[in-house]
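Data availability excerpt. The first of two example chains:
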Amino acid sequence: MQLQSVEARYGPVKALHGISLDVAAGELVAVLGANGAGKTTTLRAVSGTVRRTGDVVFDGRKLPRRPDAAARAGIAHVPEGRGTFSELSVWENLRLGAYTRRGSIKDDAQRVFKYFPRLDERKGQQAGTLSGGEQQMLALGRAMMARPKLVLLDEPSLGLAPMLVKEIFERLERMRADEGVAVLVVEQNANLALAHAARAYVLEVGNVVVSGASEELRANESVRRSYLGY
């Protein structure tokens, strides 16, 4: 997937100023930056849920500026706040994740339960009664039900205890390795993101200011001072 000179705006306010980035098949790439830098808007530009110009190229084709086009192309978006349907059961949430594709929902659910056994134990439970960590697992599981080629993941660690965050990133790594799915993750915890990502982009006020391999960014003095705390 490539973003090519993408701009995005909310009404008169421009949030992205012509950014370009790419994610290779099976690669985990992080987007870092302070609040208001344009990280969430970058994911929305890919999924077609914000007004944008410039091109989003996926599997060699330019994506139309519509959310359904991104979903049908194989892009799953897990927004900040998880976006689960709290009144529906875990099982009903998972079924909704498979709406864009054909095939056995039960087979796909078993794949999800392999990574998140707790969801299997809570199939009939209302999503709104799950813990924060379980809701994040459900959001990821629902995304995987569509058999995506790319997952857009916004702030997966938000509000979660460190042990749960570690568990979720470990499961994410397993899914990426087993399924070959690419991941573009926005994460406020830069140390965490760089520990798992192959590469990263740093945004400031809607512009890419630094990019490169995670090791390079950890060695970058301005990145260390601004985002890594040492």
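And the second chain:
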Amino acid sequence: MTKINSKDLEKKIDDRLQKPFFTDMLILAAATGTDHFKYKKKIKELAIFIREKLQERNLIKKLKYRPKEFWNFKGKKNIYNIDGGQLSLSVTGAAALGLRVGVYKVRPGEKSDQREDSDESTTLTANLIDKATSHYEQEDDTFMLEYNKMLTGTRMIMETAEVVKQIAAKGKWKAKPTTNDIIYLHGPIVYEATMYHLATEERKNSRDRGVENEMPPYKEEFCKKILTHQNNKSLKKEDRYFIPLYVEITNQIKKSKIPVYGVVERSGGLSSPGPVTRAVLGELYHIKSQPNARPGYSDDPRLAHLTNSWKIRKAGDRTVHDQLFKEFTQRPISDAVLFDLILDEGEYIQPIQIVKNPEQKWPRSCMPLHKIMPEPYITFLKVSELKRPIKIETLNILKSYDDDIDFTYHSTKLLPEYCFPLGLNIVDKMTKVPSWMRNSMRNEYQRLILKKTIETGNKEYVSMALKSLFSGRKGWNRP
């Protein structure tokens, strides 16, 4: 790739610092009493430094946008797009009815009616938890928090399990995907598992008290439904919690030779440096343990055993690494912001492996599983100057990796000003409950409640109904 000279790079970063979404970082800096000019100057210095170190080691790859030449697959490549959602209605006090995972399969260049197809699977929330073997109780005030967290974790399990099902051709389509195909998942492949395994209050205090209150186990029928590769095998209770299921499913994905990628359109996170930036610093300076470990805990031993994804010359000694780490911790700059500053359109970094499940946060009861929990390789791909880079995760770096990222890049270009793979955008809409259905049900529900309330003739009841059903309304307006 063509090297960018220092003056051009500095000008590009100056221009990017004027983007509207960078204003949020300046506001956060002002709230902490940081001088704006010093803050921007230091951020620019850090961005230029990281860019130059990566570029010197050929760790930034460049793609060329060539749509006429690129889209010539002639139906010989299958793209599976997977996303999940909740079956819920916009009704006050209504809980989610179920969870749904959709699959959209498309063959670019196919001219027949076999070009695209879709499938979906649905599970009612009432069929998730095994109440017979669970003594899990929760106060009313925190129940919804745990319930929503449980639904999110369940959706994640169902989505990753759908990947395994498609790889084994145990869904709608009987032909197995090949190494020429691609499976996309909307969102990360690996999450921080502990937060979906332990109850909220117990997770905060479990280390101090030496106890762990786990979320309730899943029903055996649900587990058999998602673990299609186990051929209806019965599971013990201890195998039907979130972490055991998640470890089992992600390891099945890792064992496969089919390209599987999780794509994140909006990469958040408040930590600075972010997990990818931490890993980049570690690789550049050949340091597998991170400084400033959490008080009372040693550095995560998993860092020393990760596959070394970058075989590069050392950028400096430990003191330089620690100083850079300190500079990042003193200024709020997330991974997405940093790589937005240093990447040009069509560029992505060499994939790097990170730790998403550190040992100190892992439940003691699941510690044997911690050794086999796979960790992802991550890259950031910049599709447009108008949008932040998208984050792409995978559990294996296959020979097709660069070609697959090229496909992802061209697929995102099919959606002007959105910058996200077209197939994932389609399946995202498929798995959501249509707004016309949610709104019509909500309106009918509100109409019925108001009618019954007005019939009571009690003005206080009417006022309370209006305030609860219509957010922001403070009183009654006469027609």
